[in-house]
Automatic annotation (TrEMBL):
This is Rod shape-determining protein RodA. It comes from Robertmurraya siralis. It is a multi-pass membrane protein. One of its GO terms (molecular function) is lipid-linked peptidoglycan transporter activity. InterPro entries: FtsW/RodA (IPR001182).
Amino acid sequence: MDKKNKVAEKFDWTLSFILLLFFLTSCAAIYSAQTTEQYIENYFLRQIAYYVIGAIIIAIVMFFDSYQYRKLSWYLYGFGILLLVVLYLLPPSDFTPIRNGAKSWFVIPGLGSIQPSEFMKIFLILTLSKLIADHHEKNPLKTSKTDFILFIKLGLATLPPLALIAEQDLGTALVIIAIFVGMILISGMTWKILLPVFSAGAALVAAVFYIVIHYPELLEKHIDTYQYNRIYSWLDPESYQSGAGYHLYKSLQAIGSGLITGKGFGERVVYIPESHTDFIFSVIGEEYGFAGASLVIGLFFILIYHLTKTALDTNDPFNTYICVGVISMIAFHVFQNIGMTIQVLPITGIPLPFISSGGSSLMANMFAMGLIFSIRYHHKSYMFGSAK
């Protein structure tokens, strides 16, 4: 078998076809979204360009194998932390502008905006995967003590990016937490540690919501007014439809008016500002109805199924942990984004993966897909288990 045939055989054609379907869905939705008078720039062409860049990123990332990523993980983590620290320390300017109340981007002339927190999610997945794999290799006999040490290691690695990102964007900080939770669930820790941690976390979230709703004055120094309004508008969007609840109210109108089959491509009536980004699902719901929205959700299920199958097929635990981290990230993004458009969850400004317009988000997701391509491409089968 020649080299070209070997490459074709090892290439993940299923994942590439799934990404092609996302590309077509994204371009159709964004093209329709930008037909309103609000838009001057052509986000449809931008998204095509981002996908081309994403394909190049996949090709580069796929070239390296898991052994090399295991060696590079801490360097990538340090690079991501450095970018977040620089972004935090620099004053607002044309290079580090404040957008929608957050200083989350570097603006590079000629290249556009880069959001470091998007790439930090991938670097964190690689680092946590290395920590878990190394810990289990050094501690083949599991005890409550070794599990607790692993929990501390993962917590210490997660805390710096979480703290820095929380200063910029609460939504992305929640994604970091989702990645952390997914990784500790797959790490093999005893429930004697996990159960108290999850119980305490759930109790803390419930307490914060209770205080925000009933005793908001207690947290006024720590939570901005617009964050309060997001929660209140989530609970009662109609009362806040002229302010903080405007997007949610319009989103509910758009999706509800789509009924079963939708109004058709380009036949939207409900106006939603900046609908090409975080509220792209509202465009899909209005134009294609319940049927079209279900197909999009089904496409995400197919992607997650494929990632799960990759995690089960690989012989390297490090690769399995990477897959779980990517699954946790994408699943949370999808659940949160779609949930906020239908009032199941508060609005947090999280984009819909592979569909919402946005260069940093798409390129980071394509980086993650590149890791999956790499795992599939460099996968080897061993008769007696994985190679050491």
